[in-house]
Amino acid sequence: PTTIVDELGIALSNLADAATGAFTPTLRLGVTGLSRAGKTIFITALVHNLLTGGRLPGFAPLAEGRFIGARLAEYPDATIPRFAYEQHLEALTGKTPTWPESTRRISQLRVVLKFQSKHWYSGMTGPSTVNLDIVDYPGEWLLDLPLLGLSFAEWSAEALDRADRPGSGKEAGPFLDLLESIDPLKEANDLDAEKLAAAFTDYLRKSREHQALSTLPPGRFLLPGDLEGSPALTFAPLPPQRQAIRGNSLYAMLEHRYEAYKDRIVRPFFRDHFARLDRQIVLVDALRALNTGPAAVADLETALTSVLACFRQGETNPLLRPFVRKIDRILFAATKADHVHHTSHDRLEAILNRLVANAGKRARFAGAEVKSIAMAGIRATREGTISEGGETLPTIIGTPMKGETLDGVTYDGKTEIALFPGDLPERPDSLFEDGTPVALNFLRFTPPQKLDRNANGDVVLPHIRFDRALDYLVGDWLA
Ligand code: GDP
């Protein structure tokens, strides 16, 4: 039958490839999420677990004894910064473990995975290899996709409308005042452009800090990567003008820079990096949003809507049409699940599922398979119980970071405590329909200070459900 001929065809071409070393399949995995969602920790844990064959019962190739090993390899594109895996691991596993520096720009790393295939012909071909290319990039950059469909005037109208809304006053005030004082029709000069851009960036940054607002583009204003201070980032929205706009005016200058931002920065990112991904994990600090309150949760949902819109197939999203689309699986992961007791992990997963489903409806999302998970790339807490007034409460045990405070106590970064973190609601409905706030006791913990070692003497990084995430993202490529 034809299928066997096909299979043989594959087997034979694999043989030939193995002989010449010509062809190794490459899985390009995108890792994104807003600032501090946990990208750096996830990738460091991912690479370390693969290199050392970590404790991953839920990762089928390893559980089935078919995973042979992994090694780091040179990344084919030398123009893109390399993910600083060794430095990050050193920070986490050094004498006094600390959290490594977070993602500020795009970076990549290639891991070569060697495994024994399950297929009947694998006996003929011997072990197989897959290149896993990990692409780390700020989620803020995804929020820029809508800009590709907006002119400077349209974007300005939207951005100024948002800045004018009640509630934005405190953050947007200085920028709006400055805007009042500058005539956009006067002759262009760099100083005005710089002052406006600085005030606008300041407003974006403050609204994120104060209200946990995470959704305001342009994404590079919040995370400029290597572009800090470059003219392409030196623009700001301007009000509509009644009189004709002259080519040498400030308005024309900023409009030009906005267009350059789209052409030179946003479009190449989507074309050269985003559109070439096979799989994507989106990390979400859902616990922080839940703890901040309903407005932050609503805002997170808006951000997820924008993110999902990027993954819409090219046919339905005209902005993406020029780019080839092929992502077939997206995993949304609520990170830092070690901040709640395991009895809340399923609940956290249900909440994220609900958030993503709502966002998916709004983004009219269709295309890739989507799944949600609650996990911790690196688990910083253990679990215990405390008895209080005849009641037994589940607790987490960890060392709060220096300077963290709770109930009037400030921690020194050395003292381990048992904390009742609070519960997540059993049904997500209570969050989304009744708007009941969730009260969590939320402290940042130091990374684990004592780490186990495996039979080879490698440290073992503890995690939560990380193996399931890995299996969903990579497992079937190693079948
Ligand atoms: P990103 O690279 O900006 O997305 O974020 P990072 O990976 O640097 O994470 C930001 C911070 O979140 C870290 O410094 C840790 O404090 C915390 N964090 C990230 N992942 C975990 C985790 O799995 N468990 C715990 N307890 N904290 C985490």
Descriptive account of the structure:
- This protein is an alpha/beta fold and 479 residues long.
- It is built from 15 helices and 12 strands.
- It folds into 3 domains: 21-137 and 273-378 and 463-478, P-loop containing nucleotide triphosphate hydrolases (Rossmann fold, 3-Layer(aba) Sandwich), CATH 3.40.50; 144-271, no CATH class; 382-432, no CATH class.
- It is 38% helix and 15% strand.
- Strands 2-3-4-1-5-6-7 form a 7-stranded mixed beta sheet, with helices on both faces. It has a 3-stranded antiparallel beta sheet with strand order 8-9-12, with no helix packed on it. It has a two-stranded antiparallel ribbon with strand order 10-11.
- The structure holds guanosine-5'-diphosphate.
Q: What is the CATH topology of the largest domain?
A: Rossmann fold
Helical percentage: 25-40%
Contiguous low-pLDDT stretches (5 residues minimum) are 1-21
Under the CATH scheme, the architecture of the largest domain is: 3-Layer(aba) Sandwich
The average pLDDT score comes to: 87
| Order of helix and strand elements from N to C terminus | HEHHEHEHEHHHHHEHHEHEEEEEEHH
CATH superfamily of the largest domain: P-loop containing nucleotide triphosphate hydrolases
What ligands does this structure carry? guanosine-5'-diphosphate
Please describe the biggest sheet, giving its number of strands, its sense, and whether it closes into a barrel.
Answer: 7 strands, mixed
Distance between the termini: 23 Å
